[in-house]
Amino acid sequence: MRCVDVAALFASAFKYVNPDIRLMAFDTEVRQLSNLSKVQEYLKRKNLMKQPNLEIDIFALAKKFANMCGGGTDYSKPLALLVKEKAKVDMVIYFSDNESWADQIPRAHRQTGMMHYWKQLKQLNPDAKLVCVDLQPYATTQLPEHKDVMNIGGFSDNVFKLIESFANNEMHVNHWISEIENIDLTQIQSHVS
């Protein structure tokens, strides 16, 4: 399974539950999928919906969304567009392999394109939060953890719970450190023996 397929499935699940959210597929450009009724009409025309009066088919939407992009990756493109539009946002969620190599921010600025545009978006939306779900976690991130930035490595159903906790201010910068410190190693040892 490709990262774009996993990202599209997660995005489609969010769109299904929250029809008013804005979806943006990206590679070196941004492609938007924001109007659910237009998506439903498209899927009906292509006979991808099982029955025309039922809710949208998440898997068909994910397939369409995944096919919207390919090629290089500029992780900052969606944020740059939001800044350009002076968009009002409360949370931005990325699902990606986190490997951005095509951004146009000179490295002399000692920041990724993502950092550059997140700072600008935060000036417009001081309470906004950012979640970066790295579908294939490596040693690097586009943005370090912060009270308004959460990085998640890997994917499972728990991603939805983590995002919800973060959105509800139930997590903090040192959340994972405290979670690890709360592990009772004696319990683990007894299961291993």
Automatic annotation (TrEMBL):
UniProt xrefs under InterPro entries: TROVE2, vWA_Ro60, vWFA_dom_sf
Transmembrane region(s): none
Pfam families registered for this protein in UniProt: vWA_Ro60
Keyword Ribonucleoprotein appears in the UniProt entry: yes
Sorted UniProt keywords: Ribonucleoprotein
Gene Ontology CC annotations of this record: ribonucleoprotein complex
Domain RNA-binding protein RO60 vWA stretches: 3-167
Protein name, entry field: 60 kDa SS-A/Ro ribonucleoprotein
Organism superkingdom: Bacteria
Organism: Acinetobacter bereziniae
GO MF: RNA binding
